[in-house]
Design brief:
The protein is 27% helix and 16% strand. It is an alpha/beta fold. Strand 1, helix 4 and strand 2 form a beta-alpha-beta unit.
């Protein structure tokens, strides 16, 4: 509770606390986390967005299998992730890992004579094929968002019946206020709508009727466990392994998201690069 909802909190670069485009800064000691020496600086900085993705799991918002109390593994949630920006891709990485672990568990149950339905792979919807390709081996399915619409060429028509009301959990990480409209349509009645976008602009003519009529559970999800993110990053230098013929999820590799790095003296060039649509992640190097 206090980590995310302290009424007196400050937020670096956002709320009553200067950002980090500087050589020196001050922070409470509680903000410091030990980074294992095996994690390079350029990878460690992904801990924050990755932690935000981990928050979805920490909140228990997605369930790929039900195996508590000795129950058989069942299919679990059908999950749609909207948005192929940095946060959407991080969420895909985390939920893809959760899906692969659930799939492995289900296979182990089958090998032991048990039953159960295979879990459903989460689907990431995005606008850019080159960004979707970054999570090719993460365990998620990748689809262009235009496939959600009846008319794929204009995206002005209603949502296709193949996708409308078909998902138990829909996670909006588009960063676009209009993403919420699509998310509501994809979510099944009494399903869960997870909001990761913090759009202050709002949606012109926003219609909340689907939330009421379909009795959707709308849940906000923001900052997450940094320590857990660092645990996932610690294996960046190792290869994925297989056990008993079952592939387990490979260590997270975040360097693929770095578009370019700049020294602090070229901060203006870095900002110009970050403004390009093709850019994924720009890093400022504070010192040699």
């Amino acid at each position: 509770m206090s980590r995310n909802h302290c009424p007196n909190r400050t937020v670096i670069g956002i709320l009553n606390q200067n950002g980090t485009f500087a050589e020196y800064m001050t922070l409470p000691l509680s903000n410091l986390h030990v980074v294992h020496e095996s994690i390079p600086d350029e990878i460690a900085v992904f801990a924050e967005p990755l932690a935000a993705a981990c928050r979805v799991v920490e909140q228990g918002l997605v369930q790929f299998r039900y195996s508590d109390d000795g129950e058989e593994c069942r299919g679990g949630d059908r999950v749609a992730i909207l948005g192929d920006g940095k946060l959407g891709l991080c969420i895909a990485e985390i939920l893809g890992r959760e899906y692969l672990l659930a799939q492995q568990k289900q296979q182990e149950q089958q090998n032991g004579g048990g039953g159960g339905i295979a879990p459903h792979a989460p689907i990431l919807f995005g606008k850019h094929e080159h960004k979707l390709d970054l999570v090719l081996d993460s365990g998620v399915q990748r689809r262009l968002v235009k496939e959600c619409y009846t008319n794929e060429t204009t995206q002005e028509e209603e949502v296709s019946p193949h996708h409308a009301n078909q998902y138990d959990v829909v996670i909006d990480s588009t960063g676009n206020p209009n993403g919420l409209t699509l998310a509501m349509t994809l979510c099944r009645p009494m399903g869960r709508l997870v909001l990761k976008s913090t759009c202050a602009a709002g949606v012109k003519g926003f219609n909340s009727a689907p939330i009421v009529i379909d009795e959707l559970n709308v849940v906000g999800s923001r900052c997450g466990p940094i320590d857990r993110a660092l645990e996932l990053l610690e294996g960046n230098s190792t290869e994925g392994v297989a056990e008993n013929g079952v592939v387990v999820s490979a260590p997270l590799r975040m360097e693929k998201y770095i578009t370019e790095s700049f020294p602090l003296s070229r901060v203006r060039d870095a900002l110009e690069c970050a403004a390009k649509k093709s850019t994924m992640k720009v890093q400022l190097v504070m010192a040699d």
